[in-house]
Design goal:
Blueprint (H helix, E strand, L loop, with lengths): L6 E5 L3 H13 L3 E5 L2 H11 L3 E5 L7 H10 L8 E5 L3 H11 L3 E4 L4 H52 L5 H9 L9 E13 L1 H7 L2 H21 L3 E6 L2 E6 L8 H25 L5 E18 L2 E7 L1 H12 L5 E4 H4 L6 E9 L8 E9 L3
Parallel strand pairs: 1-2, 1-3, 3-4, 4-5, 9-11
Antiparallel strand pairs: 6-8, 6-9, 7-8, 9-10, 11-13, 12-13
Helix pairs in contact: 2-3, 5-6, 8-9
Length: about 375
């Protein structure tokens, strides 16, 4: 970038010529550096980075043409303005100078007005070029920054897409934005687990075409999925006609058992509506639900190309076993889980159940309805 005041290098092997040019330019406010040979001129260009060079043609050793060619051969100085000063035939020297890369010419003895006009003109051109160069660098940096931001956003979108498989879109966005802890890291938490299963699905799937099975599952999953997000649940997985949902992770929520129970009741009602339509089509299906509350270890399981979000612990087994015992339209939970919502619901005993994986019988209860309904 051109400095202010501009720095001009005066190159001539005759001290008097150097003094005349240097004094004229200093009076006009320019900063002056000098050199008495071609070799010294190249050294001063490297060291002092002038904005313009006044270059005598006839010098012993390295003449002005050789210096000009050397300036143009260096990428950093290819656009450095060069005015060649000569006392020889102007026409012949101009052709040689143009071939060497000079920008303009002055004939000795140098006319001061002409000198200033040519210096101002070339410095103005250099200033414009420097502005363009600066803008080009700024644009390049903006492009690099844009590429970094796009790459970051693509990565965030990929992670958002991954997270939205398990969590509501709002929560997934918060996790990406840093508003919630990364849930895929392994952690331990008290959660409420809900298992769903369609009773009669196996016999239904054996009797109808696969396309009908898939259509019904899409309808079922869409209806249940909307309720999962509405009640702030986390979908752990689909298992064909079943689903596993839990509450209080990845973000803690107040009264997770209450959320789970309210969702389960809403699901039972929605499944009953779907069941009426399905029965008209000849499908006899009903929803069974099991709930349990306790501690589990949660986080991502799998490998890089295929990750799932999982909850591991006896609480998930208990909810699954209760779901397996539930009849169509039933919501079963154990006594400890019921204790969290006793004032919220009307419930009835289901008896002591011998559940696979549990050493002692589990006292189970069925939820009938909300206490206020």
């Amino acid at each position: 970038m051109m400095r202010s005041p501009a720095r001009i290098l005066v190159v001539d092997d005759q001290p008097l010529n150097v003094k005349l040019l240097a004094d004229t330019l200093r009076i006009k406010g320019y900063e002056i550096v000098t050199a008495s040979s071609g070799e010294e001129a190249l050294e001063r260009i490297e060291r002092d980075a002038p904005d313009l060079v006044l270059l005598d043609v006839m010098m012993p050793g390295m003449d002005g043409y050789a210096v000009c060619r050397a300036i143009r051969a260096e990428p950093r100085t290819q656009i450095l303005p060069v005015i060649m000063v000569t006392a020889l035939d102007p026409h012949e020297e101009r052709v040689k100078g143009l071939e060497a890369g000079a920008d303009d010419f002055l004939t000795k003895p140098v006319n001061q007005q002409e000198l200033m006009a040519r210096v101002k003109s070339l410095l103005r051109v250099k200033s414009l070029y420097d502005q363009v160069e600066t803008q080009a660098q700024e644009l390049a940096e903006l492009n690099r920054d844009l590429e970094r931001r796009v790459a970051k956003q693509v990565k965030e979108l990929q992670r958002l897409s991954q997270l939205k498989r398990f969590f509501s879109p709002q929560l997934a966005a918060r996790i990406i934005a840093g508003g919630a802890q990364d849930p895929l890291a392994s952690h331990r938490r008290e959660i409420t687990v809900v298992f769903l299963d369609l009773r009669g699905f196996t016999s239904f799937a054996e009797k109808v075409e696969p396309e009908e099975v898939m259509a019904l599952l899409r309808e079922f999953h869409a209806a249940m999925g909307a309720l999962i997000f509405a009640y702030e649940g986390t979908l752990e997985r689909f298992t064909g006609d079943g689903l596993m949902v839990f509450f209080n992770d990845p973000e803690p929520i107040p009264q997770p058992v209450e959320h789970a129970v309210r969702m389960a009741l809403a699901m039972r009602d929605r499944a009953a509506q779907l069941g009426e339509r399905w029965r008209k089509l000849g499908y006899d299906l009903g929803l069974a639900i099991g709930l349990a509350h306790g501690y589990a270890t949660l986080g991502a399981i799998g490998f890089e190309a295929r990750l799932d979000y999982a909850a591991i612990g006896s609480v998930t087994n208990l909810a699954a076993r209760l779901c397996a015992e539930a009849a169509a339209g039933e919501i079963l939970l154990d006594a400890r889980t019921l204790a969290h919502v006793e004032s919220l619901v009307h419930a009835g005993p289901r008896g002591m159940l011998d559940l696979k994986g549990f050493a002692a019988p589990v006292p189970a209860h069925r939820i009938i309805r909300l206490a206020t309904s």
